[in-house]
Amino acid sequence: xxxxxxxGIDANELARLYNTPLLVYDLDRVARNYxxxxxxxxxxxxxxxxxxxxxxxxxxxSGLGAGADVSSxxxxxxAERAGFARGDVxxxxxxxxxxxxxxxxxxxxxxxxxxxxxxxxxxxxxxxxGLVFFRLDVGYGKGESKGTTxxxxxxxxxxxxxxxxxxxREAKRAGxxxxxxxxxxxxxxxxxxYFLGIGRRLKEQAEQIADEAGVEFSYxxxxxxxxxxxxxxxxxxxxxxxxxxxxIFGGSLIVEPGRFLVGxxxxxxxxxxxxxxxxxxxxxxxxxxxxxxxxxxxxGSYHPMIACSGGEPVKVDVTGPICENTDRLATDRELxxxxxxDLLIVLNAGAxxxxxxxxxxxxxxxxxxxxxxGEHALARxxxxxxxxxxxxxxxxxxxxxxxxxx
Length: 406
Hints:
It is a single chain. By secondary structure, the chain is of the alpha/beta class. It has two domains: 5-22 and 264-389, Lyase, Ornithine Decarboxylase, Chain A, domain 1 (Beta Barrel); 27-259, Alanine racemase (TIM Barrel), CATH 3.20.20. It has helices spanning 11-18, 27-41, 55-64, 73-81, 98-107, 116-124, 161-173, 192-213, 239-242, 244-249, 259-262, 295-299, 397-405, and strands at residues 5-6, 9-10, 22-26, 44-48, 67-70, 89-92, 110-113, 131-135, 142-143, 178-182, 186-187, 217-221, 253-255, 266-278, 281-286, 305-308, 313-319, 328-336, 343-346, 367-372, 375-380. The strands form four sheets. Strands 3, 14, 15, 16, 17, 18, 19, 20 and 21 form a nine-stranded mixed β-sheet that branches. The chain starts with a strand and ends with a helix. The mean pLDDT is 94.
């Protein structure tokens, strides 16, 4: 194609101004996604910071009225920097260290405890329960891969009903004043009926806990997992059906979307470095791989791609420069045969891309740019080689070790 657009802006111009690899986020689309999900569910929306922690994106969502779902001290800090109100930040961690818990206590966030033991440790560390949540495993989940289905004994998250009963009884004895309950059971689910089913299970088990533990629930948290289509032929989540959540929970529902808000608002711009034929295979090399986009190597995930070229369609493997044979962004993908120097745009790159990236093979992380209303601006500078050694010291004992080795 002669022109490749990213949110109405020429991708070649963005690549010229900011270089590649480059992540671009459409803020207007994020705002639309937020409005659509809020209107459908009637819920309080707590954005899952883990999906994309860029401060520009976080500040936008904070300004729209979202809360924050965080899982670590680092994410608490990001939420604070972006202006989220302390009372709108919920820490849903698992296997947290004492240092993690203490940071949350000092920050004054709402805790959603993954286990009774973590609640007990928090109390020992100075936590005084006001509003307290526990994470329930209702026994059923769904995800795009085995690793993203978050239910049952094979899931490390949450607790079953009998343990949750003990947790709420103990929290009540410890002086908790308000109670919430959360269940996050899957990831990237496109079936609206699934969320209605999980909602009914959560409500039923919560009613049993309320009756047996003598507590009253002020909030029900359905977690996240609201999906977006990645593969050809996939239908988007039916937001009209999600209105049924209003009938189950009324105005007491919290949801924690990440991908749904930011996933399809992100684009990864890559420069083609080499096209190599090896037997019957055609490899298209690009200037970033699993160091930036981990999901295909980790989960076998699929990301749509646009080749900004006009060649004849051919089946190719798109691979990055990382020294791993699993460094494939796409396998047997039909694309117009690119030329070296062409651009390739990876779609649905707004969630779990930069936040899962690494410096593997000593590759600096890419820049991030935001666009809105036809304007664009740098939101995070590109790492340089010096960033790879920032904070890295060579202590004096290295010389001693060398002397002994000689």
